[in-house]
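re: that chain from earlier
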Amino acid sequence: MTIEPTEWALCPQCRQLVYGRKLLANMHVCPICGKHNALTGPQRVDQLLDPGSVEPLDFPVATVDPLNFVDARPYADRLAEARARTGLQDAVICAAGTIGGHPVVLAVMDFRFLGGSLGAAVGELIVRAAETALRSRTPLIIVTASGGARMQEGAIALMQMAKTSAALRRLDDAGVLTISLITDPTFGGVAASFATLCDVLVAEPRARLGFAGPRVIQQTIGQVLPEGFQTAEFLLERGLIDLVKPRSEVRPTLARLLAAAGDRPDAAAPVAVPDPVRRETAGFEVTDSWALVRGARALTRPTTLDYAAQLLDGFEELHGDRVGEECPAVVGGVGQLAGQPVMLIGHQKGHDAAELTARGFGMATPGGYRKAARLMRLAAKCGLPVVTLIDTPGAYPGIAAEEGGQAVAIAENLRLMVGLPVPVVAVVTGEGGSGGALALGVADEVLICANAIYSVISPEGCSSILWKDPAAAPLAASLLRLDACGLLELGVVDGIVPEPPGGARTGDTAMYDTMRAALGSALQRLRGLDREVLVERRHERFRRFGVSDAVPAGLG
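^ sequence. v structure.
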């Protein structure tokens, strides 16, 4: 929508008149209904990059006409008209600059130029931007707006999907962060290549993203499409994108992501703080095991999101497994712990019945563990330490979870965590139940809060199986040695995080201070260790479990 400040504009969605000056001040978002009107490429560059930082990247790229294509008009004529109307060489403009002071390379699609269609020139411009980001080790941000591949260029247009995907793969291999800002619409070959291959996918409200457009689906197979189909909100619920942000929040969101996940070579080493973690059991009272179990499940204990809010600066939660599921029982995202960027991942329960139900009681589905795995791989790519907070009765038991490969998802996480080339610290903050807990617990250092528990099975499950009597749960709890002291003596955990008198509570700042110091000390010890050393030490840590110093007769 092109509008002068003194003109009135008719919103295409709510059909209300909006004064031009007000629309411009609101970044072309209707102040009445929130309709995000399209921006031109130059407008988007100005919106995203810090004032005074814009450096145009005028790559010399020529648009080709390999087929000498003619429909109602020659393709060459359509190109000439698009250039004259937009002032652009093709449907992408590139620039370097900063967002919140963080250097970026920016590639912005402009829908005005032949519907942002993906042709040879567009593919080349995206690749040139990616190669510039690769040479400078600078994060790449791509703003997408496209109806799909450019049909007038035939199979050459199709090949741009592979060409741009290969360029992003090189950025993956080099550890360069990539972010996609999805605007309306993004379809076809763009959606099925660089738009969805970036590390983080941010979308504007109601932006549509998909491979086949609604018209194609309806005309081809006659399906009736649900309300909101292919919108950003629809995709977020299904775990296919990370974030939906209104235009006014996009730039600060990108700045937070860049601050948390970007390279910080000039960052000072964290200041050493006293380590509050206890490495021996002396001084800890032996608590009734069954009372400990019930206390570990208390709804007043801090959740992962509570810790994220209190411990991390600039925390940005990321969503979805990118396969089709957004599991609310596992949360994760990037932030800064005392100035050090980290990836935080953990189980999420809740503080009341409604939240517990919405979060599946902290019992993750396969999608939850796949989400965690995706975020761990992103952390490995960006060189971020991983912190996991464990608080779950166990993985979700149900038909859908088994059909979705629950066992496979857990196993894949165990294998992935063993080989992560970055420091990993895990803390059992409440209830550590079975393989559902261990799927986030393969770490260089495993800690447990003083009143938390960690066990192969719940006491109720153990009593039902072995005694066939649920009333035997207190006995099972005492025999399983699931308390912090017992686990420290077994070597399952490396230390105990003290809790305030009466146990950890959501509003108790002392617990957050202790946890901040415990995590900071652990990461400081692991900071700077060679990646091969980290992986080998982690392997050896878990290799030792169950090995006796005595060699059985006949095996010596």
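The first helix runs from residue 20 to 25.
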